[in-house]
Amino acid sequence: MPRTQAARRLPPVPRALLCVALGAALASQARAQASDATATDLDRITVTAQKREQQIQEVPISINAYSGDFLQANGINDYGDLGTLVPGLEVQTQSVSNPSISIRGITADLDDPTQEPRISLFQDGVSISRSRGSSVEMFDMERVEVLRGPQGTLFGRAAETGAIHLIQNKARPGISGGFQVGLGNFDQRKFTGFYNADLTDAVQGRVAAFYESRDGYMENLDGGTLQGKDTRAIRGSLHFNVGQASGLDLILNYQKDTPPGTGFRSRDIPNTQLSFDPYVANSQRGNALGVDREVYGATLLGSFNLNQSWSLSTITGWRRYDGVDRFDADGSQVNAIEFDEHAWGDQFSQEVRFNFDNGTAFTGFLGASYFNETASRDLTFQTDERSFYALLTKVYGPNFGLALVPIVNPDGSPNLSQTTDPFFGSTFSTNHSETWGNDVSIRSFEIFADGTWRFGQRWSLTAGLRGTREDTEYRYHADVGNSASIFGLIDLQGPGTAATPNLLFKPTPGRISENGKWNSWVGRTVLGYQINDDINTYASVSKGRRPNMINVEFKGTTANPVAHPVIEAVPAEIVWSYELGLKGTANAGRFNYDLSLYYYDYTNFQASISNAPSFVPPFVTRNAGKAHALGFEASLFARFTDQVGGFLNYGYINGGFNAFDDDGVYQQLAGNRFRMTPDHSVSVGLDWEMPIANSRSVFVRPSYSWHSHVYFEDENVPTIEQDAYGLFNLRAGLRFGQRWDLTAWVNNVTDAEYLIDAGNTGQTFGFPTVIPGAPRMFGVTLSGRF
Known about the structure:
Layout: H1 15-34, E1 46-47, E2 54-55, E3 62-67, H2 68-73, E4 89-93, E5 99-103, E6 106-108, E7 119-123, E8 126-127, H3 131-134, E9 141-148, H4 152-155, E10 162-168, E11 176-184, E12 188-198, E13 203-214, E14 218-220, E15 225-226, E16 229-241, E17 247-257, E18 265-266, E19 280-281, E20 290-305, E21 310-328, E22 338-357, E23 362-383, H5 385-400, E24 432-455, E25 459-478, E26 512-532, E27 535-546, E28 549-555, E29 564-570, E30 573-586, E31 591-603, E32 606-610, E33 619-623, E34 627-639, E35 644-657, E36 680-691, E37 696-707, E38 710-711, E39 721-722, E40 725-736, E41 740-747, E42 755-759, H6 760-763, E43 769-772, E44 777-785
Parallel strand pairs: 7-10, 14-19
Antiparallel strand pairs: 1-2, 3-9, 4-5, 5-6, 7-8, 9-10, 11-12, 11-44, 12-13, 13-16, 14-15, 16-17, 17-20, 18-43, 20-21, 21-22, 22-23, 23-24, 24-25, 25-26, 26-27, 27-30, 28-29, 30-31, 31-34, 32-33, 34-35, 35-36, 36-37, 37-40, 38-39, 40-41, 41-44, 42-43
């Protein structure tokens, strides 16, 4: 049965399923409470979110942490898979070069290097937050920590609303190894493995590798497939013992991605089969579409005991990414909006931190860091001007007074009948291209301090402050295209703004630039109260900040039609967060819970909003004024019996733009909800293992996740949205002792249809596209350890 966009509408979350799961959980918990004291605790995760080792239940932060064993057992390969496990976290991945992450309603998916992310991603203490280089495979992991709420004191300038910390396994004493191989539909092939050994008495080494390839789940009638995967990664690490209880860890990472193209699908043009099926595309250039990206990283971690009270930690990091993404932005067989994006970045960071802990009432740290980054993005636009003319007349015809020309013929083929411009009588270029781009150089210096004072029997006070000095240069350029464009004679951006000889952007005399220098601070205060040995509560106030930015453009105006730089400063976005939390354990450690209630108050919210009445660019980042978010989150983990465990996560958020700004002016986005933000999200899962004989067992791991309605743009366009949907996944298999697992898995068991994004680049031209989510996928894996 062919897929249609109408099939995306799915019923609300099955309440019966949740009731059954919760009922079973409570009944199992009651039985466990009646059992004897031989019950074992749940795995207790040790985290370093506050830059020191703590049990997760002791940390006064909304945090989820998962061990590497848990990630592998549940098929979690990259942080895109974490969205079903963490309340308030939404992750959608168009491609490895364009992930979209949302924590508590605030999204970080910017492709413009001049704009800073709101959410920090760290790999072993080193920031990997730039979106074009942030998508990395999670293999041979020690654990993952997801922190919700402003984390600037702990994780620096890009952690306005949260942070994800990927902590990889390091080389350690002893000989060990393991592997996993797998096969699946869409010709999936996968391998991951590691080997750890002692090189000398004082040096250990470890190497880990990852490979996965899969055809795309979208058929492309112009050749090949879309939305596939092809990733290779390798990591080497060395550990050096340096005196007593001190050491160095050197980690080298490399990843190469060459997947097929992103599956943009037009909502207005049928494919050549006269279908709007989002899973069957007609994307121009066929197999030439796709990503070719390399990511390099080198990290040196140092830990040195200075005396019984003080220790020194150092983090030195270097990263580079370089990639080209070729995509068909109109999502059709019409050669109208084709792009090649070349993005690269290079960064170096150094942190020095002194830690204090003498076993008394106070623990804390202080330190300084330096960050230096250069990031660039160039976009090459390609079009057949006959098709582009047809597109403009369809979308903007009434505004420009142009004759309406069909974009495609009744059989779905391109209509190229218009060969000359009706205004000037010139012949359209059949292969026009032009390139423009922007880049940024950032240097920041930071000093920070954070400490916890425990007073009385059960009270604690945590306070932290981080000061930042930023020195940033923003640059923009537009090069002369390969041929003069007829459309460059038309004032698409208003009178005096013709882009001649280009179609979209006037050529610049080299790179134009502007500098910005800012001083800022963020901080947190947390009051904690330990009700008893098993229950902790906290109340926190924290300040987050998204750095200032500068829009640099090059255009004319009505008053001055000669091209000139246009500089627009956008102030720093500020959020004040107020949060109450309750976390603890019950039932002899078999039941863990983490509850949080929060409110965010934003000023100078940086949003992508309409640039009307201009056409290019149709959307720009501007100060959208005030916004807010009110939310509640719950994470529940239970070991019902020695054989059955499970989890339940729930997130609620009411987040959006206020009606009026601080001056009482009605805001452009007044009343709109944040993009990519469901009001409700639920995930539930079980892990049931049944012994059979000879140290063998059978395991079953079902999970279900559900999200309510979302908009894909802050402007809340009615057609650029996704209704509520749910996904059911299942993993089951055999375990042979502690060394061998044979697993069969199915994702999206019911083959539900949904969108992972809509609008996209095509929407900026008034020509929206959609990207469908993955259909049913299945396969088998074999895992071994020694």
